[in-house]
Amino acid sequence: MNIKQTLKSWTLLIAMLTGVLGYFIYINIPFLDSTHKFAYIALSTTQPCLIFSMLFIAFCKIDLREIKFKVWHLWLFLIQMLVYGAVILLLCLFPQLPEKLLWESVLLCFITPTATAAPVITQKLGGDVAGLTTYCILINLSVALCLPLGLPLIYPQEDTTFFSSFCRILAQVFPMLILPFFSAVITRKYLPGLHRSVTRTKDLAFYLWAASLCISITLATKYIVHSDITVFNFISVSCVSALCCLIQFSLGHKIGRKYNCKIGAGQSLGQKNTAFEMWISFAFLNPVTSLAGATYAVWHNIYNSWQLYEKEKGRTIH
């Protein structure tokens, strides 16, 4: 294994350590104290741009002729939307629920769309890449509409109407989930030269993901340091994200097995765009729920690493 491949294998750990250590090193350099506000604004602005870029590259590589909706797409879609709707309803009825942080973590883990890296893992595992890609488009466009519909209900703002909150959230989500798809379609049709250049990039989306994850971890570290989160809550949120990861992969596999696409369905439901997941927590929820996104990234990468290991050994993954 060469150095490049070794670094790629350890990217998750490197990005997380860089995010945590980078934050503590930065805040302990006295002459940089005056730059803290600027740095926060810069990172908060850069992160959505990276998420847009990752999705744009991923969508540019999609052949629209391969997009075919299947029955299992509907089942996965219903699971994500029903859990999202149920948690929204619960938090609307009981806004002062003591376990609100944990339920927000559940909401976050289920509504987050499929990761842009999912097709790569699915291909390595021998799964239905075209089916997963179709679901990736479906869920990204759907989440862009569902988030503005649900989030204003659990975090209503005084002197602000539901429609105003809907438009505000949609304006923030649209550039990251919907705009990349239509930009990719327009680029393919009207800018073929640029489209060819984008599709030839091999690892650019991967490095953008690493940078975005690093920024997410840095911001999460900042929020955790300045919050009053207890060790119990830290462990609880981590356990909730692990349980959500297990449930979604299991349900995806179970549904996919009925339609002969166990791997594709499992990855569609279980592997999440954790950079976007953490951005949601920073932008709209209790920022401490970013822990759910950070730990979910660990859980789904551990599980996928195990699946790849079993695949290399020639063992059947049940």
Description:
This protein has 318 residues and is mainly α. The chain has one domain (33-313): Na+/H+ antiporter like fold, CATH 1.20.1530.20. It contains 15 helices and no strands. Helix 11 runs parallel beside helix 14 and helix 14 packs antiparallel against helix 15.
Beta-strand proportion: under 5%
Count of the domains: 1
**SS-based class:** mainly alpha
| Largest sheet entry | none
Give the class-level CATH name. Mainly Alpha
**What distance lies between the first and last C-alpha atoms, to the nearest angstrom?**
28 Å
User: Mean of residue pLDDT?
Assistant: 88
Rg to the nearest angstrom?
A: 19 Å
Q: DSSP helix count?
A: 15
The geometry reads as globular
